[in-house]
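seq:
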Amino acid sequence: MLATTQQFEERKADRSELAKMVMTLFEHWQLSTEDQLSLLGLSTTNRGALARYRKGEPLAPSRDLLERVGILLGIHKSLRLLFPHNRELAYAWMTQRNRAFDGMTPTETMKQWGFPGLLMVRAYLDRARGQ
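struct:
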């Protein structure tokens, strides 16, 4: 079944909201441009995409990109639930070295391992929450 124009526009609006959310998240985590591009699975030469997403342009309709954003938002949710009274710790956690990741930061782990690294960090937080 073909999507109607209205459904397409709604999905586009959803991707626009996701773009704004993930860019705000990156600001809270204080990630470099290179880290942001890497976590989204984008080329380091694609800085223009980040600028467009900051303006609220919709994320590309790429399954990989949308899954990555979903995982990143899930990581954020887990951190907020683990540290409900310490927002600063929840945001700083991504850049703190962690024995669970062989002394690397969660961000470094995700960059080094790519998509599986995102899943590793998410799974670690889910276990920490008792999920």
